[in-house]
């Protein structure tokens, strides 16, 4: 059993060893593959960077070549225009001098005029042949052919459209005659062509004269129309003045019968607030305003202002809107009062002040917007000027790059020529030394060896200098053949190398040296020619004085950016004024409330004073009554009642009754005065209570508005913070999920490591066994 166990253990150990070796081999292969992958990535990045650099260089070369071609095309167009002008003048002179050449040019022009539907390329090639015959040069023939065909095509189209608009019958006749004469055009004589050309010129002059007359008549009609418009505007102004006068007369006539009911209404004892309201409702309104509603004028638009000659109408719009808004507010209040809507003075004032404040804020924002648009337009113009200037600088840069290339080639040619001259002098010096000129010891072997080495070195240097000079000449020839295209530089360098290898056997002659000198001169001339194309440009930071176009109405004032800034400041001041007005209105409200409280206290004080006076009078009366009764009682108790006769009783009763009546009358007068005072105080208290009730209602409304504003602000803030809280919750949720996933991954890794450690321990225990 122990042997079997040991055999099983040894077999398991051998298997473990094999698996370990296999795992080590896989690990080494994995490391090798990772290193290989890293190397491949590094190579890929390196090649990508090199390819990007190469592509960028090639694209920059292409862009430089394109800009050079654009500059060359512009120069060719200028030269083409100059040469076409010269060609036309030479053609006219040639017509006067020679009839044969006139017939040729007339054939070309008449063929194109008689065949307007044919392709314009035939006429262009005929004109190019004529230019070649006039010895104008062969360098610009291809470009001239294309430009001339386009110009002639546009000229013929313009002539056909003008002639068809002005005289269609004449054009039809000319076209029919041209189509009939097309067959016999080749056998036509020069004199007939000259006559035909003269007829066409006469017809052209007549048509031009007719056009001038039509333009003069149109100008005359325009002047008449402007005079009629001015007369119409003058009459309209007169009609408006007459209408306003008639309305004012009707209003003054309607004022007289409306005064009496107003006075009667004002005489009735009404409170102060009701008197104001009555004056508003039953005020002297003209009958024209009662019968007909006033028409509100339309808004003054920018097109109407710009038609008067103003270049910038936004500032004028702001200035005109204030008057219109004031009239609109007054009309709203008037219509509301006429329809029966009871509006108190406080509500009207608050409405006007709030409307003025909001309108001033809107005007300020509009003026700021206009100022920003003006600054944007100014910056846009400045940017356009800078783009044009940058384009000019770029063209100068390309020209300077071309000059630099020419100078580099000239320097290379100069170096080749200097090497040739230096090697020529070295060969001459070596020959002189070999001939024994300037030598002290001619028969020594060391001297002979030195001379031979000197000759060999001189000839080698001469060959290298000749080879370099041939390479310079061959590069120039290849560059002229291939026009210096960047995609053919490699092929040109290869052909130059092959030609240099094949042409190294040929000798360098004096003609090659002359060619090298001519090459230097040509490069210098090219450099000077390209340098002449550069322009002296102004600085980027200096704003040149631009051409200011004259406005259509020279008397109108030009409104520019400074006026817009002033308008913005004015609107800001209006907004500040409206804010101060609103604050002043609130302070007036508070002042009126304090005055009402003071009046209420004063009325209470008067009521208390009346009560005190009434109590004092009652106390005085009681004291007087008590003082009259007491002596009578004392006399009755102290002495015996004397005998009184009937006559005495009657006389005493009469005098007492009279006194009682007088006292009662006085008492009634005092009571009536007190009652009147109490009624007046009660009226004052009722008035004060009503006004305080109105003010409390206004305060309640203000508090409601403030509360609603606070509620809306609270809702907005609540929504804002709720959205923020939701975002934070989402972020917290994502972060917690990420952390939980990370923790799960760590737990799995820990469990995996624990399992591996347990397995290793088990294996170690088995191996130990």
TrEMBL record:
Q: What is this protein called?
A: Harmonin-binding protein USHBP1 PDZ-binding domain-containing protein
Which ranges are annotated Polar residues under compositional bias? 111-120
User: Residue ranges of the Harmonin-binding protein USHBP1 PDZ-binding domain?
Assistant: 357-420, 670-732
- From the UniProt entry, list the residue stretches annotated as the region Disordered: 96-120, 246-273, 483-510
Task: Look up the coiled coil feature and give its residue ranges.
Answer: 9-79, 348-375, 556-597
Which InterPro entries does this entry report, sorted A to Z?
USBP1-like, USHBP1_PDZ-bd
Instruction: Show the ranges annotated as biased composition (Low complexity).
Output: 248-260, 492-506
Keyword Coiled coil set for record: yes
Q: Which domain of life is it from?
A: Eukaryota
